[in-house]
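@channel anyone free to eyeball this complex?
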Amino acid sequence: MIEILNVSKEFKGFKAVDNISFDVKDGEIFAFLGPNGAGKTTTIKMLTTLLRPTSGTLKVAGFDTVKEHDKVRKAFGIVFQDPSLDDELTAYENMQLHGVLYHVDKKILKPRIDELLKFVELHDRKDSLVKTFSGGMKRRLEIARGLLHHPKVLFLDEPTIGLDPQTRNHMWSYIVDLNKKENITIFFTTHYMEEAEKVATRIAVIDHGKIIAIGTANELKKKTKSKTLEDAFLKLTGKDIREEDASSTDRMRMMRGRMSRR
Amino acid sequence: MNTITALWLRQVKRYYRSVPRMIGSLGQPLLFLLVFGFGFGPIFSRAGAGNYMQFLVPGVIAMSVLFTSMFMGIEIIWDKQFGFLKETLVAPVSRTEIMIGRTLGGATVGVIQGLIVLLISLFIGFKVNIITLPLAILFMILIALLFTALGTAIASLLDDMQGFQLVMNFLIMPIFFLSGALFPLENLPNALTVITHLDPLTYGVDGLRDALIGTGVFSVAMNFTVLIVLTAIFLGIGTYLFSRIEI
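replying in thread with the prediction:
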């Protein structure tokens, strides 16, 4: 479903991703782990056509992310780390707009939206403005929206960050359910090791732009002679805290906290 | 419904749903009208230059269209990090379509804002020429398109809000103050004459003033041509820069 071959991405001489290659099979729940600044988000951005690789090829659902980007875009759904919903529109309107952008057939659009909003238990709030939603509700709505156009792969970039354990648990049960029922391949990043251990069929660990381990949770634990995935992760990537210069997104996140916008 | 219509509708909906923002953005034009209009009015008429309120209203309308449109364009900076723009960038639609939809949406909001200011000014004694009103609206549309496109172009180059203050103080404010919105363009010092003639908004203000109260400096054709050409150029640049946004 996903094929990554000899992919590198450089930013002004800095190698964010350094010659990585791996595949994700149909129907897998694939966890992509790594410390801050290891290259996770850059890889997701390349897979979702937001960035072009400096070298190498990426394929999603058999299509090249550079040459056939529109076909790739139709084949995946994504939940970003920062919400990308329109706060001033209702849940239903956000879904509808997504339907237009993805050219979903008008006749099936309405029932599909209703079905998905029921699935994420937001149907009774479909006409509320998104700005009245909690973080967890927004995340659920984004999952529903990402599924609207029947994608083959769902990318989740730290989907449970900032959510309480109840909501996280709930979210994963939706996602696993989806994977089983509709056979959607899931590709996710997280800093919560127990999530990866619990739901992922396979795990890749990236550090300094290189894939340093790939396999099932048990394989990684066995390889590093660790009891938990967290230990295995720390043995693989070291215990040093990674200092990372604030990106423009980080700076804006801070500003967002200070300014009450709108 | 296609992509462009959907994105246009989205921005119009956001505008009319946010009543506080709508009222808030009317504060500045209202202040200009009341303070400058009534404050400078007596001196203006004593100098034999006529009714200052009549002179000022087209300038303030242009101001509100300028500010609103420019902000609608610059909003992309927020939008690409925390907003809906990301959703559109990974959708199977072209960047040009997104740019057109956004620009039309932003410009529509700018024009509505200008019309509201016009409506308010009628209550404080502004007399408008009804026959040429459509022409005035056309000029508002051009001003709105031009500056939404410019705002988008600038926003595509900035990656956080740090540069915003810079744009505000060194671009938007000078564009407004040097446009002849507040003072007549005749008999200015030479340097100021040159600068005012280089300011795109000058032609918008002049066109509006001509259409609303019948006193323009340049011909309608000239105002129209300058605005059309500049709008085309900025739309081109805006679309190009927007298509290159990486996040």
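from a first look: Chain B is about 80% helix and 0% strand.
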